[in-house]
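dumping this here so i dont lose it
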């Protein structure tokens, strides 16, 4: 084979060796991620290629900052990215379940089972999952305007990043925010209607919810507050236009100096007056504001607000449902947005501007925290909670969390395996055991003996106690009721994760050869000679 290919190619011929090497690679990465699963998870400190330090327990954040070269591991990474894109949650779950299924399949391969027989056996168990999950439905959210109902939905999603002892306060804050901003037609709920602003200092318990959009700076001029105002947005500077020519001017006397600046002043005065006559009360500028333009804006009682971020400008355009102007001119009526209020307030010794739209409900969660890493992780936690509600709008059926549903899947699928014989019996049993990895990891991360916890859970479920789950709040009892503690997972989200994991399992098990080409690129550049001078 090597004789047929160019120099540098490597080929793993034995199909079993190829499959087992792929599974080992997946297990290596999964071992890193497993300790970051669940509320009692550990953080990872990653220093990336540009020397940026990331502290996080978020699966996607970890995978994106790990430069993974292995093609099969990248398949599982793609699963997590797909899960994050579709549901914004269960990214670690899908990676862990897929790896566990592969590991159970590797045991059968070692015992001499054919790969196709293993896949067929796993498929028998997989076909029962829809029925089992439907029977396990335990909660259905009806009222999205009740913050107590929303609290139940987002608790499990946000609980996976237990940031501090005050995380219940954070969940309550988001519940209030979501119930307040929920539109009349819940299907039109937009996650972008909830903005997150981060301010260093204070504690997480000092975080607050504000109606409107928060800009972390104050207006430039003397006008600090406007009610029922009309707004124009400039995507250029509020200053006189200049030509790209040489700026040398010959002035022969004092009168010429006066006339030189007067023409520019008259031009700017006319532009600002025309803007005022068009009904504009506020100008939001993504660019520079000249002193002379600011002077005439103050004289005409126009508020000016300078925005340095183009993304912030896009969000304001979306809030006001208008387009930004790329040239300084008098706006048309359809280019003017309306706000119910725009004003300055002080939060934590920092002046901020709050914009409230007339047409759209928009709110901002103002996060406080000691470090940037804590604020970033809290922001990811809030995004998980928002996505949990978005998923609940798509499908409002929930199953018990905390490893409870996985034990139920194991128990029911194992009962099915006892009705089968031969290869199918072994394959279905192994498929069932792969689900026990979730309660086992949750128990290990909580500091329990995972064997004792899993055996106790299986015993409780066999007695009909379908609410039994891992008690993450470590005390004398390591089993608790998922219903009493409001631990729920979205049924559709969990089913989609298992679907993705099973598809990846089939793909990876059918890879019988690994053919690696020589990496592209020329030789590395020579190192600098230490004997050369700096300027050589």
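and the seq i came up w/
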């Amino acid at each position: 084979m090597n004789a047929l290919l160019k120099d540098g190619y490597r080929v793993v011929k034995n199909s079993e060796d190829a499959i087992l090497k792929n599974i080992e690679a997946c297990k290596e990465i999964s071992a890193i991620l497993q300790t970051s699963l669940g509320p009692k998870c550990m953080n990872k400190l990653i220093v990336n290629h540009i020397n940026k330090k990331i502290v996080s327990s978020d699966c996607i954040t970890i995978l994106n900052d790990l430069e993974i070269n292995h093609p099969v591991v990248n398949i599982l990474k793609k699963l997590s990215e797909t899960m994050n894109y579709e549901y914004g949650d269960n990214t670690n779950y899908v990676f862990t379940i897929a790896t566990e299924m592969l590991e159970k399949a590797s045991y059968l391969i070692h015992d001499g089972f054919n790969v196709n027989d293993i896949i067929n056996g796993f498929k028998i168990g997989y076909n029962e999952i829809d029925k089992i999950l439907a029977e396990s439905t335990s909660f259905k959210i009806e009222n999205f305007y009740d913050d107590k109902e929303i609290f139940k939905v987002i608790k499990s999603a946000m609980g996976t990043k237990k940031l501090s002892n005050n995380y219940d306060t954070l969940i309550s804050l988001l519940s209030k925010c979501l119930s307040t901003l929920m539109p009349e037609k819940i299907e039109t709920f937009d996650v972008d209607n909830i903005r997150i602003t981060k301010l260093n200092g204070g504690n997480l318990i000092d975080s607050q919810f504000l109606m409107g959009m928060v800009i972390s700076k104050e207006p430039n001029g003397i006008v600090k507050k406007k009610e029922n105002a009309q707004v124009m947005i400039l995507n250029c500077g509020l200053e006189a236009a200049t030509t790209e020519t040489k700026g040398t001017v010959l002035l022969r006397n004092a009168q010429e100096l006066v006339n030189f600046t007067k023409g520019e002043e008259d031009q700017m005065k006319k532009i600002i007056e025309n803007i005022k006559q068009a009904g504009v009360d506020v100008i939001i500028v993504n660019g520079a504001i000249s002193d002379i333009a600011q002077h005439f804006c103050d004289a005409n009682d126009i508020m000016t607000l300078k925005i340095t971020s183009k993304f912030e400008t896009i969000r304001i355009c979306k809030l006001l449902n208008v387009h930004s102007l790329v040239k300084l001119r008098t706006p048309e009526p359809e280019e003017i947005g309306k706000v119910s209020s725009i004003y300055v307030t002080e939060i934590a010794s920092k002046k901020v501007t709050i914009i409230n739209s007339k047409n759209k409900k928009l709110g901002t969660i103002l996060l406080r925290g000691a470090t940037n890493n804590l604020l970033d992780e809290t922001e990811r936690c809030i995004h998980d909670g928002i996505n949990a509600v978005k998923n609940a709008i798509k499908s409002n059926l929930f199953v018990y969390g905390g490893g409870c549903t996985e034990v139920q899947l194991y128990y029911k699928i194992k009962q099915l395996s006892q009705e089968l014989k031969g290869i199918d019996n072994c394959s279905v049993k192994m498929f069932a055991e792969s689900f026990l990895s979730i309660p086992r990891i949750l128990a290990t991360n909580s500091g329990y003996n995972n064997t004792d916890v899993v055996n106790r859970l299986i015993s409780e479920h066999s007695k009909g106690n379908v609410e039994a789950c891992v008690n993450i709040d470590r005390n004398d009892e390591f089993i608790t009721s998922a219903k009493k503690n409001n631990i729920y997972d979205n049924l559709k989200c969990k089913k989609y994760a298992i679907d993705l994991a099973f598809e990846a399992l089939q793909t990876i098990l059918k890879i019988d050869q690994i053919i690696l080409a020589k990496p592209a690129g020329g030789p590395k550049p020579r190192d600098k000679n230490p004997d050369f001078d700096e300027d050589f």
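The radius of gyration is 30 Å.
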